[in-house]
Amino acid sequence: MKKIFKILIKLFVATLILLSIFLIFSTLTDYKPELKTNLFEKPEAKITSQNNFNILSWNIGYAGLGNNMDFFYDGGKKTRDTKKRTVQNLNQIINFLSLQNNIDFMLLQEVDVEAKRTYYINERDSIEKKLPNFLSIYADNYLVNFVPVPVSDPMGYVQAGLQFLSKPIPNKSTRYSFPGNYSWPTSLFMLDRCFICNRYKIGNQKELIIINTHNSAFDDGSLKKQQLKYLRDFLEIEYQKGNYFIVGGDWNQNPLGFNNKNFSNYRSSEKFSLSSIDKNTFPSDWKFVFDPTTPTNRSNITPYKKGETATTVLDFFLISPNVKPNFITAINLDFKNSDHQPIIMNFELQ
């Protein structure tokens, strides 16, 4: 009995040592982006004649969250899809994007560069190569050497982020880090949230500001509030200058004015709690633009079943009062290749 007890003690101590080494390694190699990072610059670039634009936003779910998937972090069981289905999803996502000939700006979220979950396929480059008419700008928001959960099948290495595709050439593109993070050691393995801000010089000496954002999902609401306050303060400065702004992406919240009665009941999971943006967060004359008839996100607790799986709207645009939205539509793809659906808006500068 004493011998068994000694063996158990040794195993316990060895486990603690290995865990300590892993946490030290993860801490020392933790991705810590700057608050502000220059991604692209071309000071002479200018939009001179165009006043009407089309913009698309889509969280492509790293081509790994098609309609056949559930996901462990949302309350499901799976960590990743098969390589065959992942490649199929990516090809169909790229095919859809390549057919959008009238789109000027594409805001993509959850684009993998190198990750175990997507079999180390470089999705950013794959998208860029098939859309040669767009300038491609990318920023990491998830860079972890080894994500240790779930223990039975760890996610492992992940490098993923935001991709901004633009036909007009911006005079500047910048990555801005959102404030706040989880406590240690959880912060070592979670996303470092950010947004990409593209600036376009227009004919009246003002700038068109277009932002691609992906806000926090798995928190108690405190990170979401910090991020929205930071975004509001950032945009207020730009609007006071007389600039125009469009913010699009996956907000992981319902937009102001959204009524969920047209959608299936969305059950909060242990990690994700559905909430709406508070009416006092942004000035009352700033507009949230979304399609109230078509869901843009579905629950990942189980594979997708039309009419049964919970759905909602998490993807939308926020625009300044000097921008006029002519139409917005969410494209119903039945969540075949992603757990989100693309949205398209036409707008003009006033």
Describe what this molecule looks like in 3D:
This protein has helices at 2-28, 83-98, 123-130, 222-240; strands spanning 36-41, 52-59, 105-115, 135-147, 156-166, 172-177, 194-201, 207-214, 244-250, 287-289, 297-298, 311-312, 315-319, 323-330, 343-349. The protein is α+β, with helices and mostly antiparallel strands and 350 residues long. It has two domains: 1-30; 36-349, Endonuclease/exonuclease/phosphatase (Deoxyribonuclease I, Chain A, 4-Layer Sandwich). The strands form three sheets. The chain has a seven-stranded mixed β-sheet, with helices on one face. β2 (52-59), α2 (83-98) and β3 form a beta-alpha-beta unit. α2 runs parallel beside α3. The longest helix is centred in the N-terminal third of the chain and has 27 residues, at 2-28. The chain starts with a helix and ends with a strand. The model has no long low-confidence stretch (mean pLDDT 93).
Question: Strand fraction band?
Answer: 25-35%
The H/E string reads: HEEHEHEEEEEHEEEEEEE
What is the tally of beta strands?
Answer: 15
Q: What share of residues is helical?
A: 10-25%
Helix and strand content put the structural class at alpha+beta
Radius of gyration: 21 Å
The termini sit apart by: 82 Å
Strand order of the largest sheet: 1-6-7-8-9-13-10
What is the CATH superfamily label of the largest domain? Endonuclease/exonuclease/phosphatase
